[in-house]
């Protein structure tokens, strides 16, 4: 029985080492750009020149992981100028479109789409969009990480596939590290879910060596990662709680004490927020009502007496 166990361990270790050796020999093949650049990954930055649009005021577009590309006017450059863009992402809310526009203006997006010469000075058609987790500029190679399901009894283990964006290359990786990205806990949680999904998690970073009992392998240390902007299925939100003071998608039981600010929610709107959760729409009327309720509370004799006693 002991010999059988040792044979099993040896076989699994050999399999992992073989996988690591395969990915270690992977070579990067830069694919020549095509005239249409269909489904290409881009980074962009705004054009701040002052002149008549679309001659100025558009975007400088650069395909990731490529030294040069073919622009809509036929020229070969490191980056292309386009005077117009078109967002072809269905189902985005007005607030999501505003979020995307702001991120594009701050050069915090990774876009997938194509360049076209359908209009003068070029057109960028955007079919998918990701927004960076922080303000840090991306450095290194752009790669999309997915969990490939491989599990080993030793470490390092090639458990992740790294698809090099805009190239026909897949790199086997033992780990990915997001510690250098100034991301929130919520963003890190979404990143983990993306890695475990079929679509994966796009990031920029550099390869690092990882060593362990089974030898050495490569991982990637991210300088930035990107979360996809996609349509959030709206929830059926409703006022709930004893006094109707809570906005949720299910009935919530609360205590029944009354507070003056609860009256403000009678005419307020309860709906899905940008993060997909239910919440009150904090428009000017609701903000003003809540502020007046707080001031009136402070002017109550009991509140004044409490402040004096303190």
Provide a short characterization of the protein structure.
The protein has helices at residues 2-24, 94-105, 185-195, 284-298, 301-309; strands spanning 40-46, 59-63, 69-70, 76-77, 80-82, 84-87, 109-116, 123-132, 141-147, 160-164, 170-173, 176-177, 201-212, 215-228, 238-240, 246-248, 270-272, 278-280. It has 310 residues and is α+β, with helices and mostly antiparallel strands.
Give keywords:
23% helix; 3 domains; 31% strand; 5 helices; twelve-stranded mixed sheet; alpha+beta; 18 strands; 310 residues
Commentary on this structure:
The chain has 310 residues and is α+β, with helices and mostly antiparallel strands. The chain has three domains: 40-132, no CATH class; 137-228, no CATH class; 238-309, no CATH class. It is built from five helices and 18 strands. It has helices spanning 2-24, 94-105, 185-195, 284-298, 301-309, and strands at residues 40-46, 59-63, 69-70, 76-77, 80-82, 84-87, 109-116, 123-132, 141-147, 160-164, 170-173, 176-177, 201-212, 215-228, 238-240, 246-248, 270-272, 278-280. Strands 1, 2, 5, 6, 7, 8, 9, 10, 11, 12, 13 and 14 form a twelve-stranded mixed β-sheet that branches. Strands 3-4 form a two-stranded antiparallel sheet. A two-stranded antiparallel ribbon has the order 15-16. A hairpin with a 5-residue loop joins β15 (238-240) and β16. Mean pLDDT is 85; it is low at 4-37.
